[in-house]
Amino acid sequence: MMKLPLFLLLISLVTQTSLSEVTISVTPTILQKSGDIVTISWSNVDSPSKLDWLGLYSPPDSPHDHFIGYKFLSSSPSWKSGSGSISLPITNLRSNYSFRIFHWTESEINPKLHDHDHNPLPGTAHLLAESDVVVFEPGHGPEQIHLAYTDVEDEMRVMFVVGDGEERSVKWGERDGEWSRVSVARVVRYEREDMCDAPANGSIGWRDPGWIHDGVMKDLKKGVRYYYQVGSDSKGWSTTQSFVSRNGDSDETIAFLFGDMGTSTPYATFIRTQDESIATMKWILRDIEAIGDKHAFISHIGDISYARGYSWLWDHFFTQVEPVASKVPYHVCIGNHEYDWPLQPWKPDWAYAVYGTDGGGECGGAVHFVYISTETNFVSGSSQYNFIKQDLESVNRSKTPFVVVQGHRPMYTSSNENRDAPMRNKMLEHLEPLFTKNNVTLALWGHGQDWQPIWEPRADHPNDPIFPQPAMSMYRGGEFGYTKLVATKEKLTLTYVGNHDGQIHDMVEILASGEVLSGDDSFGVDGGARTGVVDSTFSWYVKGGKRSCPWGFCGLYSWLRFLFHEEKW
Ligand SMILES: *[C@@H]1O[C@H](CO)[C@@H](O)[C@H](O)[C@H]1NC(C)=O
Ligand SMILES: *[C@@H]1O[C@H](CO)[C@@H](O)[C@H](O)[C@H]1NC(C)=O
Ligand SMILES: *[C@@H]1O[C@H](CO)[C@@H](O)[C@H](O)[C@H]1NC(C)=O
Ligand SMILES: *[C@@H]1O[C@H](CO)[C@@H](O)[C@H](O)[C@H]1NC(C)=O
Ligand SMILES: [Fe+2]
């Protein structure tokens, strides 16, 4: 028999103990771009609980309860054996990541610690293991690339985000790789002190936003496809992107319109995120690819990312919209989830129930499109009112027959909730007369829960169809989707595309004369049909396919979209 020296025996015992320690590993540890997938594997978890969880941390030295998000280990099929793995895409937050696993049981749930939906936030008392650091390798170019119009027709703005303030440029040309022009981007950033309230200004919600670069491509020909890259020789260039420039001579306008989209995360976090946004972006990308070399743009009518003070959700949002926003200009209008906070300057008495804390401390500050802010003063005499008035009066309707106004909180809504009614009433008092006087064609609103073209007769102009509720809704879609707008000088066509199938569920056409052609009844899918309500009450106004009326109210056709059925605005 071999005699084992004592010290070897001890070593062997130590090894035995360390073998039963929980291990965690992550691969790869070097990533290139947002969306790259990491796999986190663990083993040796003793008496696993279905609440054991994996936390994502960035930067890696964040306190345990300052995670970016979490996933339960029980999402891995083999979790009961004490080992398993989870793969998920990671968004570049311009700092490193690490992953930690914690043991957590139902008896340890703290009812006082919960998210906005009253789901308990995971307990951090028992750390089991922490992974190596995951790094986004430098040199792969800027991220979150998105286009926007400038005030000049032959220009296109491109914005993008990098982790340092060094000089970056945009280079562009009519062919990929033939960069005939280069322009240096302006750079801006914002600081934690710029935020107005928690969580945006606190250590849980705040993350370094990086440097936001803003380049302008100038002297563009009309209606031409341009290729571009952003970045620098020393820090790397993006992959080539392309867009079709504006063409003021074209008789056609194509736009995709929606509100309240939000973003999707592959993990749970402090607030709910919006998986429905994946389908919205998927179908719009399909439609943009289908229109080929025609110019189009996106209009997002408020409540943009639903980050609500958790800054990394903005990184998710811009990463998610990049495939679309790098190809067509992406315009937004302010919503309550970008502004609303207790000390906001615009908070009149009649609006006490309207404005709350929806912004989580974030604040900011052939168709003529006007955006209005329902989050700041719009009553007669305010500077916004004067701006809208002057803008509407300046449109040459022979040249631009259609005017579309877009705002976030609706002027027409069948909701009588105390968060909606005062706003609707003040907008009807101050803005509606301005819109009707200036023959606004269409008003688009977000904020609510569905798709709802509205028409309602009013006491002071009883023959003009703007309906009393509940009959005023011509169509309600309870599902998520978006609107596609195509306008020529003769006709503006709006179609509503549902997220679940990417199909058209409602349609309306408005002629330049103001005449409205009704939607086609064949678009009545999934119970949201132009049903009995339309057939009876609406027949006078809408059925029969055609109806003539003077500009004014007939033309003020208002569409609401509900995106979040569960969410309270
Ligand atoms: C990220 O991790 C790498 C490797 O550990 C390290 O060299 C680098 O300094 C870290 N970056 C930051 C921003 O902390
Ligand atoms: C965040 O803003 C609120 C409201 O202005 C303020 O009371 C609070 O002290 C700020 N928090 C931090 C960490 O600066
Ligand atoms: C309005 O547009 C029409 C058609 O382009 C043009 O003939 C007319 O001169 C314009 N009117 C003004 C006031 O600019
Ligand atoms: C609005 O339309 C009416 C009826 O066609 C017309 O008389 C009026 O001049 C128009 N107003 C504006 C500002 O275009
Ligand atoms: Fe909203």
From TrEMBL:
| High-level lineage | Eukaryota, Viridiplantae, Streptophyta, Embryophyta, Tracheophyta
Which positions make up the signal peptide?
A: 1-20
Is Coiled coil a UniProt keyword of this protein? no
Known partners and oligomeric status: Homodimer.
Tell me where in this chain the Purple acid phosphatase C-terminal domain is found: 463-506
Task: Supply the name of the protein.
Answer: Purple acid phosphatase
One family name in Pfam for this protein: Metallophos_C
Q: Which CDD domains match?
A: MPP_PAPs
Q: Does the keyword ATP-binding apply?
A: no
* EC class: hydrolase
Cofactor(s) recorded for this entry are: Fe cation; Zn(2+)
Q: Where is the Purple acid phosphatase N-terminal domain?
A: 142-244
The subcellular localization recorded is: Secreted
Give the UniProt entry's GO cellular component terms: extracellular region
Q: Specify the Calcineurin-like phosphoesterase domain's residue ranges.
A: 258-447
Protein source organism = Salix purpurea (Purple osier willow)
GO MF annotation, one: acid phosphatase activity
Q: Which family does it belong to?
A: Belongs to the metallophosphoesterase superfamily. Purple acid phosphatase family.
